[in-house]
Amino acid sequence: MHVTNAETRPTLADVAARAGVSKSLVSLVMRDEPGAGAETRRRVLEAADELGYHPDSRARLLRSGRSRLLGVVFGIQHAFHVDLVTALYTAARDSGYELALSAVTPNRDETEATASLLQDRCEALIMLGPQTPAHTLARLTTRLPVVVLARGVRGADVIRTADADGLHQAVDHLARLGHQRIAHIDGGRAPGAADRRRGYREAMDAHGLSRHVQIVAGGLTEEKGTTAARALLDQSQPPTAITIFNDRCATGVLDVLARGGLQVPEDVSVVGYDDSHLARLAHINLTTIAQDVHTMTKLAVARAIDRIEGANVAHRTIVVPPHLVIRGTTGPATTQS
Amino acid sequence: MHVTNAETRPTLADVAARAGVSKSLVSLVMRDEPGAGAETRRRVLEAADELGYHPDSRARLLRSGRSRLLGVVFGIQHAFHVDLVTALYTAARDSGYELALSAVTPNRDETEATASLLQDRCEALIMLGPQTPAHTLARLTTRLPVVVLARGVRGADVIRTADADGLHQAVDHLARLGHQRIAHIDGGRAPGAADRRRGYREAMDAHGLSRHVQIVAGGLTEEKGTTAARALLDQSQPPTAITIFNDRCATGVLDVLARGGLQVPEDVSVVGYDDSHLARLAHINLTTIAQDVHTMTKLAVARAIDRIEGANVAHRTIVVPPHLVIRGTTGPATTQS
DNA sequence: GTTTGAACCTGGAACGTTCCAGACCTACGC
DNA sequence: GCGTAGGTCTGGAACGTTCCAGGTTCAAAC
Predict the structure, then answer these.
(1) Which bin fits B323, alpha (ψ -120 to 50), beta or left (φ > 0)?
(2) Helices vs. strands in chain B: H and E counts, helices first
(3) Block mean pLDDT (10 aa), chain A, length 337
């Protein structure tokens, strides 16, 4: 006999007893599967409601052998990751899978974040701009499907933006506005940085501006942006336009410009990268290269699920085109220069 | 295509078979419980390692009736929440409990975030600055322990900062520097905003500056900061110092000042609130009121666990004192004003 | 009047753990 | 010699589901 105790939550058996049917039938009804009559279904639902029954996902998942969980590893401090996670939630909404977040923080590295998701028996991993070495990722891939977002790497599924193309668009835009001394503050060894550097160089060449190519060491953070910007401004002939590795770094640059008494875009034009929520802030209002977060996350979820359900495509990279978003930090080059 | 049974992960039984012992014994060893001989223990661990065995938390939790999970509801867009989550991870590290994150995003409200954690059978909820109405929180409390961080609310455990005290410290600091026209940009209806407003007013009174009290409507975001700052600067006699609801809002203010050609702190001093990572950025370098994130998160985790383990203290609020962090955005009032 | 086949429902065996009661040793005190 | 007490180890019953193979019923088709 099952005694309903205040401490223990009601179970399938309790509901079954109350509705006068079998556990199996209640199970069916709870999952909204066919195979139960309308009237019985109603009675079962009523009983469940009265008891305040909620299915126990642990037991459910244990039995079905599945967790229906997509693990997400992300850097909680990264503006762009935050945007991606936000979009991932909506991308996963109707997929029948849930997201399990695991954050990377200054005190919690990627290995730890990943391990905790594995323990939860996630069925696939979506990793945002992971720093994990390629061979470690490859090993992970043998355990479960891994989709890497915003970083190119062999051996796993990758969804990334056409980074070089993004910088082409940035340079094209600036060149159209008459700029010639266009500099680039890069992202060092960060994922995507190399491609963006290359794109910048190619585009400058294409516009016949090779002699004005100038690449300054930057990084992912505001800090790096400020030091890079100071270095640029210290020159005898500072650039009239700057393309920057990402938006976060760009805000550091903007800050240095403002403090230096330089008007944006009158004196200097600035283009960021990511179109993260930072760029959209009214007081930043940054012209930037948008990564198509919506598409990228949709593709990532879809690919993860395909893999889970056994699609045996070779590991493949999907490249999503970026696009220019013109806001207030770019304007025509002044004639004097 | 692999021939190995990549489909099924190794289980306790597999390890037991390989080591030539019973499931129960392996279970003991895996949990590091006493009751197994040194040599057997070694053999079991070896077998587990060779098979790449990892315990299945679902089954484990199902059987033990516990999840050892602390659910965390947080706003992924909020700089301060990000700091709190970061600290929560380290606070929970050696507690024997894991964190389950559930983010609130523009498309995923608190109700949804909470529901998903309940389904995972979290044993307690830690909610960061929740917007959920008090009576809904109270109902939640009947289902499981709820610890609210950074918002005062009756009926649940609350860990919060002495917000009024924080503004006292800010005003004291500015008054000591000789400022008189000290304004406050508030946080509207945000958690804590009312207390900070009150603290500001009290402190101004205490310094005999009642006639200079000026409160401008602000908010949580950079945007709100910029419009509030513009309103302040438009006056015939703008303030020489500004205290602001939070750091994020303060960066908006700083930006307006910089663009307006005003030097900080020479022309205007600025004090933020939270000491979030924003404030520490070299180019922001914001004087601010630090909430003691370390202590708050430690207390939150401890309280949650106390509740889980049956400590039956009455619901109680713990107030943590804030402290002033002097950085570069405050300086002596200029004599001329 | 039998057969057929949906539509509805049931019982019991998994899933991979933990927990409990007890079995088997060996050593020890008397 | 006996009883007892630890220290090791084992078998099997939970935990709350889902899944599978079947069992009724009842109306329509032969």
Answers:
(1) beta
(2) 13, 12
(3) 52 90 92 86 90 86 86 92 95 89 94 88 92 89 89 87 96 97 95 94 97 96 93 94 96 90 92 92 90 96 89 84 96 74
A:87-126 residues touching chain B, CB 8 A cutoff: 89-90, 98, 100-103, 105-108, 116, 118-121
**Peptide bond before residue A34 is cis, with ω within 30 degrees of 0:** no
Give the span between the Cα atoms of B38 and B23, in whole angstroms.
17
Cβ–Cβ gap A226/B283 under 8 Å: yes
**Residue found under tokens 């406050």:** B184
Residue A86 is nearest to which of B106, B252, B259, comparing CB atoms? B106
- Paired tokens of B316: 């109680």
Task: Report the distance separating Cα A239 and Cα A270, nearest Å.
Answer: 10
**Residue A76: Cβ within 10 Å count:** 25
Residues of A in contact with B261 (CB under 8 A): 261
Cβ contact (<8 Å) for A255 and B283? Answer: yes
**Segment B196-202 long-range contacts (CB within 8 Å, at least 24 positions apart):** B196/B163, B196/B164, B196/B166, B196/B167, B196/B245, B196/B273, B197/B167, B198/B164, B198/B167, B199/B163, B199/B164, B199/B165, B199/B166, B199/B167, B199/B168, B199/B171, B200/B167, B200/B170, B200/B171, B200/B243, B202/B164, B202/B168
Quote the CA–CA distance of A46 and B60 in Å, as a whole number: 31
